[in-house]
From TrEMBL:
<dbReference type="Pfam" id="PF05637">
    <property type="entry name" value="Glyco_transf_34"/>
</dbReference>
<dbReference type="InterPro" id="IPR029044">
    <property type="entry name" value="Nucleotide-diphossugar_trans"/>
</dbReference>
<keyword id="KW-0808">Transferase</keyword>
<protein>
    <recommendedName>
        <fullName>Alpha-1,6-mannosyltransferase subunit</fullName>
    </recommendedName>
</protein>
<dbReference type="GO" id="GO:0006487">
    <property type="term" value="P:protein N-linked glycosylation"/>
</dbReference>
<dbReference type="GO" id="GO:0000136">
    <property type="term" value="C:mannan polymerase complex"/>
</dbReference>
<dbReference type="InterPro" id="IPR008630">
    <property type="entry name" value="Glyco_trans_34"/>
</dbReference>
<dbReference type="GO" id="GO:0000009">
    <property type="term" value="F:alpha-1,6-mannosyltransferase activity"/>
</dbReference>
<comment type="similarity">
    <text>Belongs to the glycosyltransferase 34 family.</text>
</comment>
<keyword id="KW-0328">Glycosyltransferase</keyword>
C-alpha cells in the first residue's frame, strides 16, 4: 500500500541535515500502514473463523428459542384425541415462552410420494424451520406422546452445556446392541446439532431436538433423499436414520445420543424400550410407539390415564 506525499519543494528544508526528517516520517508512515494492514487482516481472519466454526443460528432478541413440531394425523384420529395432544403442547409452550408448529400428515402427501406416510415428519420439520427461520432449536415430538413434566424447560433439562455433555453417550454402538459404528468420544456441546435417543433396536426419531443452521438443512436433505424413501426399509424413516447415522460420519460427528428416558421414555405397553427406557414418574416425556399399528393396542385408551395424570400435574405446578 502506498501513501501520496506532497511534492518536495526546493525552498523547504534547504540544509542537508534537515533532509532526514521526510525520510524518517516516511518510515513512520510505512510502519503505521503495515501495522494497520496486519490488524485488518487479523480481524478478517477471526471473523471468518468465527462464522465457519458454528453453523447454528443465534436467537435474536424478540424471537422464541424453541419451536415444538407436532405432526397430526387427522385422517385416522379423532379431533378429541388430537385436541388433547394440542392442549399438552400449548400448555408447555406457554409456560416456557416456546412456539408450537402443528402440521398435518396429509399436507405432505406430494412430498412423500409413494413412501410410507411416516416420512412426512421430515418435510414437516423443514416447513417449521422455513416458517421460523430465526428460532434456535426445533423439538420434534410424535403426536403419540405427552410432555409429562411440564415444569422442566428444555434448556436446563437438556441444552445447557454441562447438562448436555454429561448426558451424551460416548463410544457406544450407534444402532444397538452391537453396531460396529460407535458414537464419537470427544463430542463437546458446541459440536452438537442433533440430540436423539435409541431404543432397544434403533435410533428413535419420535422425539429429538435439532439446532437450526446449515447442518440442520443438510441433515434433513440427506435423510429425505429419494433413494432412502424408495428403498423399502422395514421401518421406513427409522431405518433410514439408522443408515445415515452409521455411514455418514459428517452427521454422526454432530449428533449426541442421550439416555432414552431423558427425552423419549416408552409406555409400559410399548415394546422395544431400552433396558432403562420405560417411563417412570417424573420423566419428561412418555411415548406410545406402535399404538397405531400394533394388533391389540389402542392409542386413545393408552393415552387417557396419562392425560388425566398430566391434567392433575398442571393444576398443582
Amino acid at each position: 500500500m502506498q501513501f501520496a506525499l506532497p511534492p518536495r519543494s526546493p525552498h523547504l528544508l534547504p540544509h542537508a541535515r534537515s533532509s532526514r526528517l521526510p525520510i524518517y516520517r516516511r518510515k513512520q508512515l510505512k510502519t503505521v500502514a503495515l501495522f494497520g494492514i496486519a490488524i485488518l487482516s487479523l480481524l478478517f481472519i477471526c471473523s471468518r473463523l468465527s462464522s465457519s466454526s458454528s453453523t447454528s443460528v443465534a436467537t435474536p432478541t424478540g424471537t422464541t428459542g424453541v419451536v415444538i413440531v407436532t405432526l397430526l394425523d387427522r385422517e385416522n384420529f379423532s379431533d378429541s384425541y388430537l385436541n388433547k395432544i394440542v392442549a399438552n403442547r400449548e400448555d408447555y409452550a406457554k409456560r416456557h415462552g416456546y412456539t408450537n408448529f402443528f402440521a398435518t400428515v396429509s399436507d405432505y402427501k406430494d412430498a412423500v410420494g409413494d413412501a410410507p406416510k411416516s416420512w412426512a415428519l421430515v418435510p414437516a420439520i423443514r416447513h417449521a424451520i422455513a416458517s421460523h427461520p430465526r428460532s434456535a432449536y426445533f423439538f420434534h415430538l410424535s403426536s403419540h406422546a405427552l410432555i409429562m413434566n411440564p415444569s422442566k424447560p428444555l434448556k436446563s433439562h437438556l441444552l445447557e452445556k454441562s447438562r448436555l455433555e454429561s448426558l451424551t453417550l460416548k463410544d457406544v454402538p450407534v444402532v444397538p446392541p452391537d453396531s460396529i459404528i460407535k458414537t464419537f468420544s470427544h463430542l463437546k456441546e458446541n459440536d452438537i446439532d442433533l440430540i436423539v435417543t435409541q431404543d432397544k433396536e434403533d435410533v428413535s426419531p419420535g422425539s429429538f431436538v435439532l439446532k437450526n443452521g446449515e447442518f440442520a438443512r443438510f441433515f434433513l436433505d440427506v435423510w429425505f433423499d429419494p433413494l432412502f424413501r424408495s428403498y423399502n426399509f422395514a421401518k421406513a424413516e427409522i431405518h433410514g436414520l439408522d443408515h445415515i447415522m452409521q455411514w455418514h460420519p459428517t452427521i454422526l460427528a454432530r449428533t449426541a445420543l442421550v439416555p432414552q428416558r431423558t427425552l423419549n421414555a416408552y409406555s409400559k405397553d410399548s415394546t422395544g424400550a431400552s433396558s432403562d427406557g420405560t417411563y417412570q414418574d417424573g420423566d419428561f416425556v412418555i411415548r406410545f410407539p406402535g399404538c397405531d399399528d400394533t394388533k391389540g393396542r389402542d392409542c386413545v385408551q393408552e393415552l387417557e390415564p396419562y392425560y388425566k395424570l398430566w391434567l392433575r400435574k398442571t393444576k398443582t405446578d
